[in-house]
Amino acid sequence: MIKLNRKIARLKPSATLAADARAKELRAAGIDVISLDAGEPDFDTPERIKAAARKALAEGHTKYTAVSGIPELKNAIRSKLKRDNQLDYDANEIIVSAGCKQAEANVINSLFDDGDEVIIPTPAWVSFSAMVELSGAQVKYVPCPESTGFLLDPEALKRAITPHTRGIMLNSPSNPTGTVYHTGQLTELARILLETDLWVMSDDVYEHISYDGPVPHLFHIEPQLRGKGIVFNSLSKTYAMTGWRVGFAAGPKEVIGAAGRLQSQNSGNPNSVAQFAAIEALTGPQDEVKKMAEEFRARRELVVERIRKIPGFRLPNVPSGAFYAFPNVSELFGLSAAGRKLTDGDSVAAFLLEEAKVSTVGGNDFNAPDHIRLSYATSREKLTTAFDRIEQAVKKLGK
Ligand SMILES: Cc1ncc(COP(=O)(O)O)c(C=O)c1O
Description:
Elements: H1 6-10, H2 15-28, E1 34-35, H3 47-58, H4 71-85, E2 94-97, H5 100-111, E3 117-122, H6 126-134, E4 138-143, H7 154-160, E5 165-171, H8 183-194, E6 199-203, H9 218-221, E7 229-234, E8 247-250, H10 253-266, H11 272-283, H12 287-307, E9 324-325, E10 336-337, E11 340-341, H13 345-356, E12 358-359, E13 361-362, E14 372-375, H14 380-395
Parallel strand pairs: 1-12, 3-4, 3-5, 5-6, 6-7
Antiparallel strand pairs: 2-8, 7-8, 9-14, 10-11, 13-14
The structure holds pyridoxal-5'-phosphate.
Pyridoxal-5'-phosphate binds at residues 39, 99-101, 125, 171, 175, 203, 205, 234, 236, 242, 247.
């Protein structure tokens, strides 16, 4: 057997990307699978952004750029942070990477070490824990129960902090729950975090997909946290640009500088043409962002109504952001169909793929094995068919 690096040998593939790959494989084999698994908008990238990319190509912007992003894009990001989050950053406090994921991996690897602990409130996006573990630090999960709307309880946060704790990852609106933290809840968390020396990381990639008004920012509510705070964001979800791979981090220049050194050694600059497209995305008219969010809202209504009619699916909290529903399916555990017994979220997702030809993601890797994640970043027509199929499949389950 080939001996791999110890950390890589333990690394699992991303559960969400694996589910999406499986659905694509089945479709390529001619099976009509509906994907409710992917974390990407089904909309096309707006035309004005594509036009900016064509212009950049025509002008010959095809060479290496500054490793941490071109100055014009950093300026556009500074203006965006001011416009949307009321946060001020200098250019040397910003790094542009190949997606938010790479920005997060760079920063996490720059900040944390063997023996450190990083708090991740759960359910959480599958990659946070993998990135923390790759840095050598240990993940400290803090469960946020469904009964509290999946919100982090300030007292539970306090209890989780030890002398080894060096960071916390927050994500509002949340993937996978759709939970959004409001001002009062952030104020409470800020009060506790201010008494600590933790690095506070805020993943804001779903900020514009919010159904109850603008999403407040922790570092705006408590500016003192900004000194040990890192903002992560991306163009992927807001502008339907998942494939372009542009994301960024903003934070103290020492950390951003370290992340830049890491990026310079392990990948280099983000795609040059995509950076020019990103300037247009951030600085041009923002109407399509609102239009996409409105369509997600209509889909959310459809999805919530349909989920609540399926026996064995429970959805106590209506998601208030992002484009995911995260129903509890534990009432189905113990039931079987075609010799397959349901035991956890992953087995329910596998059953739905097999019986309903609908691809979802089991909750196990989100640290929530009683749940499955359904993405409604797909047309209402497909969603309707998907739920018709799920309803029929669930009827086949028995003792
Ligand atoms: C919470 C969260 N952060 C970051 C990302 C990655 O975004 P990007 O495409 O910019 O790497 C995702 C993608 O699903 C996400 O759900």
